[in-house]
Design the sequence.
């Protein structure tokens, strides 16, 4: 190339795009996350109203009661844009893949007691439908939300939930020797078993929520605030007592993912609540309502797995959710 | 070691076990409340299971392939920046193609991402939903990698600094913006017909091949790299486009006329938008790839012809006005360039009169039309410019109510008469540029009367003021840098300085 040109005469005339510099300050080089996110979404002069919902604009702030001066206030602490996202998830998945291979090679699943294997089929495998519900809700939020910052996080989360539904499905295929029988049975439980109806009802009710920020909070803070500790910490520990280390290994992706999501969610709630007392009040109401529902819905499953310890565990989980909310400036 | 031999699943079976069974028939809420938007367009679907998954990709494989592609792409973007790759292009005039891309096309990638997210939630079948979600994610990739690749050009050249704002406001960018707004405000099946089929399947080669090979010919390695990297996603998107068409056509005969009308509409809207690409190809590339006419013949007439032959068995005919569009391929690039030459004081990229060698190339590529209609005009403009009278048109043009292109295109059988159609709706008159646009208007007037037409908006005082300068400032254009002729521009000055330095050393 043209290396003979002295670098002194090819000084850049500007460091980044104007809309990025406006947020960042002039003459600062921008991070990839910032250029890939800020002001990416159109904001004005939409040509037509959606024929599927003429009440709204294509991008519309009024689809939630939450009000933000700037919808790019909550930047993802993980700084995920597409490239960073796929690279991060692939890394997590590579580890998970190795666990699957190792379990396959060593027939480690055979060491899990038959009784616990049966339990796993009853509590873990139906959860793949809950994950699919979480995919739908995050997809809906990505669609309805305002600003590229939160919309992209929701889309990443939607795809992650599909990914986790598939990991759970693969666990089923390990347990049923790839016949798919365990998955069919799990679907039947999801559709008909008493133990699961609370969760299914809650999931279906969340599908039709009108306010996307409520949906986002209900799914990713409240329901997940119950599911991730309950399934991947408490149930996991219970499994250890039944030779369940093979299953523990397979939980790793979900454990890591849950931690990752917490970072973002807690940050989101903190920034949103700090914006105004009205926002904080809305969040508080939603968190109260949906935490109550999630605790109630998952209690029968907790009892099925943990027996008499279940109520105590659910109380601990609720305390933890309230603590996280309080830390984000939200009183329940 | 393992006593029993483990069963190995085939790809199709594995995909279906991991994905297809995930959804369920809701009972605590009505299915129609959970999926309120997938049945108002008049498309009959009897069996969602009839959907053939076009690419059986599970998330583990998706993350793997895509992250590998991203790593390679960003390595190139980084080295392009470190090695001042912008110095390796053929000529700074080329950067104007990049400007048009970043302000006109990249925002559409974002619109695509959000549009596919919408339909990725709204279809009740799990198969199409997953395919659409993956495409949503891909489209986010496209806009983000484009923003990152072009960031380096923005550091050195004008006209690239405010793409999102310009896309929302600037007059000629309402052509691509209204195209996508139109698709996004349509129902989910029409959205897929417009974007996945008409755009990604039928017309995509006319957008990406020109830009990407144009980049390759002109030494722009950054654009070539993201282009080729995106191309492997497009292969998936195209199969989705074909699958949705076949799915609708196979589910019910009553779907056929609806699908045909959508094809007609989106073919026409697509070709109108591509007139921007046509002029880019014939005028903005210092080193030309092929003429617009040649691209049209290869990618539409030949490839499209074979496709529509294939769809004949469903009762589908080639798009209405395809013959007109083919005639237009002789004229459209010249007419579009002429419009922008007239109004380049109000545009965020430069125009110019092609030099002698370039005019000769156009004469050779367009033997029947260029010398007769367009060359004399360009030579006249050149003379005027050299005499210190570079022509700019100070009146605002009327825009087509549908495609929003200034009404400067002519009747194709009479290239001296401006084509002009009128419709009436609720006692008002609406003007369109062609029968293609008029048909679209007449079928859904209540939609197209809503259009945010930039020229109307300027006259109504909604664009920063009544003087041209007020409007341009409101567009966030840096006057005297982003706009006007290439000759005398800061881009040119800087480029010439670099070249002078290069020869001295
Ligand atoms: Fe794309
Ligand atoms: Fe695409
Ligand atoms: Zn038109």
Sequence:
């Amino acid at each position: 190339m043209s290396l003979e040109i002295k670098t002194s005469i090819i000084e850049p005339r500007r460091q980044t795009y104007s809309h990025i510099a406006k947020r960042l300050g002039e003459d600062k080089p921008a991070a990839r996350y910032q250029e890939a996110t800020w002001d990416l979404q159109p904001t004005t002069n939409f040509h037509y109203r959606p024929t599927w919902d003429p009440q709204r604009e294509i991008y519309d702030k009024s689809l939630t009661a939450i009000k933000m001066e700037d919808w790019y206030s909550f930047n993802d602490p993980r700084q995920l844009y597409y490239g960073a996202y796929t690279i991060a998830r692939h890394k997590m998945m590579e580890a998970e893949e190795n666990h699957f291979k190792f379990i396959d090679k060593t027939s480690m699943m055979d060491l899990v007691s038959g009784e616990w294997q049966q339990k796993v089929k009853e509590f873990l495998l139906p959860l793949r439908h809950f994950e699919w519900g979480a995919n739908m809700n995050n997809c809906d939020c990505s669609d309805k939300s305002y600003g590229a910052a939160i919309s992209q996080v929701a889309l990443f989360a939607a795809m992650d939930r599909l990914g986790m539904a598939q990991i759970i499905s693969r666990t089923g295929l390990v347990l049923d020797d790839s016949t798919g029988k365990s998955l069919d049975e799990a679907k039947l439980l999801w559709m008909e078993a008493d133990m699961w109806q609370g969760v299914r009802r809650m999931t279906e009710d969340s599908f039709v929520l009108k306010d996307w920020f409520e949906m986002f909070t209900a799914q990713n803070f409240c329901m997940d605030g119950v599911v991730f500790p309950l399934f991947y910490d408490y149930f996991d520990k219970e499994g250890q007592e039944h030779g369940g280390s093979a299953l523990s290994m397979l939980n790793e992706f979900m454990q890591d993912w849950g931690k990752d999501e917490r970072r973002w969610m807690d940050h989101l709630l903190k920034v949103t609540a700090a914006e105004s007392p009205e926002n904080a009040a809305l969040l508080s109401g939603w968190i109260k309502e949906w935490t109550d529902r999630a605790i109630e819905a998952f209690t029968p499953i907790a009892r099925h797995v943990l027996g008499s310890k279940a109520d105590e565990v659910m109380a601990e989980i609720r305390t933890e959710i309230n603590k996280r909310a309080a830390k984000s400036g939200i009183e329940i | 070691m393992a006593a029993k031999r483990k069963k190995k699943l085939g790809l199709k079976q594995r995909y279906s076990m991991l994905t297809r069974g995930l959804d369920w028939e809701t009972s605590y809420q009505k299915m129609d409340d959970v999926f309120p938007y997938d049945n108002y367009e008049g498309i009959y679907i009897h069996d969602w299971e009839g959907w053939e998954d076009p690419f059986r990709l599970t998330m583990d494989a998706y993350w793997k392939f895509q992250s590998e592609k991203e790593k390679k792409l960003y390595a190139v973007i980084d080295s392009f920046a470190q090695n001042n790759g912008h110095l390796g292009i053929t000529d700074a005039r080329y950067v104007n193609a990049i400007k048009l891309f970043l302000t006109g096309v990249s925002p559409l990638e974002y619109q695509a991402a959000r549009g596919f997210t919408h339909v990725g939630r709204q279809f009740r079948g799990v198969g199409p939903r997953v395919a659409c979600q993956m495409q949503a994610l891909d489209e986010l990739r496209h806009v983000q990698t484009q923003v990152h690749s072009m960031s380096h050009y923005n550091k050195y050249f004008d006209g690239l600094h405010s793409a999102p704002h310009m896309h929302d406001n600037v007059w000629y960018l309402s052509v691509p913006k209204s195209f996508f707004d139109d698709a996004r405000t349509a129902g989910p099946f029409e959205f897929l017909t417009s974007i996945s089929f008409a755009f990604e399947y039928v017309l995509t080669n006319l957008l990406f091949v020109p830009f990407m090979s144009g980049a390759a010919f002109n030494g722009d390695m950054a654009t070539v790299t993201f282009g080729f990297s995106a191309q492997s996603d497009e292969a998936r998107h195209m199969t989705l486009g074909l699958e949705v068409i076949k799915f609708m056509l196979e589910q019910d005969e009553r779907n056929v006329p609806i699908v045909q009308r959508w094809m007609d509409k989106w073919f026409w809207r697509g070709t109108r938008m591509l007139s921007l690409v046509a002029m880019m190809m014939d005028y903005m590339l210092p080193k030309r790839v092929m003429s617009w006419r040649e691209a049209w013949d290869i990618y539409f007439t030949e490839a499209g012809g074979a496709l529509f032959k294939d769809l004949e068995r469903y009762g589908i005919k080639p798009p209405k006005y395809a013959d007109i569009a083919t005639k237009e391929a002789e004229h459209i690039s010249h007419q579009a360039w002429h419009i922008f030459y007239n109004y380049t004081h109000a545009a965020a990229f430069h125009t110019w009169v092609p030099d002698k060698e370039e005019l000769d190339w156009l004469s050779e590529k367009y033997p029947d039309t260029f010398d007769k209609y367009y060359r004399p005009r360009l030579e006249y403009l050149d003379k005027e410019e050299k005499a210190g009278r570079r022509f700019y048109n100070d009146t605002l043009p009327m825009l087509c109510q549908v495609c929003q292109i200034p009404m400067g295109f002519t009747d194709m059988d009479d290239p001296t008469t401006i084509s002009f159609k009128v419709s009436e709706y609720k006692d008002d008159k609406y003007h369109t540029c062609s029968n293609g646009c008029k048909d679209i208007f007449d079928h859904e007037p209540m939609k197209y009367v809503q259009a945010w037409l930039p020229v109307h908006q300027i006259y109504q005082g909604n664009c920063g003021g009544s003087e041209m300068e007020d409007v341009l400032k409101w567009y966030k254009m840096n006057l005297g840098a982003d706009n006007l002729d290439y000759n005398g521009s800061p881009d040119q000055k800087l480029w010439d300085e670099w070249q002078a330095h290069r020869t001295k050393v």
Notes: Chain A touches chain B through 92 residues (CB under 8 Å). Residues 277-306 of chain A form the longest helix (30 residues). The pocket of zinc ion (ligand 3) is lined by residues B 272, 400, 402-403, 405, 432-434, 437 (CB under 6 Å). Residues 192 and 200 of chain A are 10 Å apart (CA to CA).
